[in-house]
Amino acid sequence: MADAGIRRVVPSDLYPLVLGFLRDNQLSEVANKFAKATGATQQDANASSLLDIYSFWLNRSASWEGCSQSIRE
Predict the structure, then answer these.
(1) In angstroms, rounded to a whole number, what is the distance separating the alpha carbons of residues 44 and 13?
(2) Neighbour-count burial for 3-12, b at 16+ CB within 10 Å, e otherwise
(3) Are the CB atoms for 56 and 40 separated by under 8 Å?
(4) pTM
């Protein structure tokens, strides 16, 4: 059963983060093409970066992996 309080994320939610990542890494030509193709706009300056989100996901995945491994033992 899905938790009603959790908002489903769709790929387009990540577009501003991808656009910011491309611009932060001096990939302006790609960023401009991406923005034009997707209609993405620059992310809020206070928003987490794509790298922050990915790091969080990696750490969470590692902790889940360790948890599931200890359950198996």
Answers:
(1) 12
(2) eeeeeeeeee
(3) no
(4) 0.65
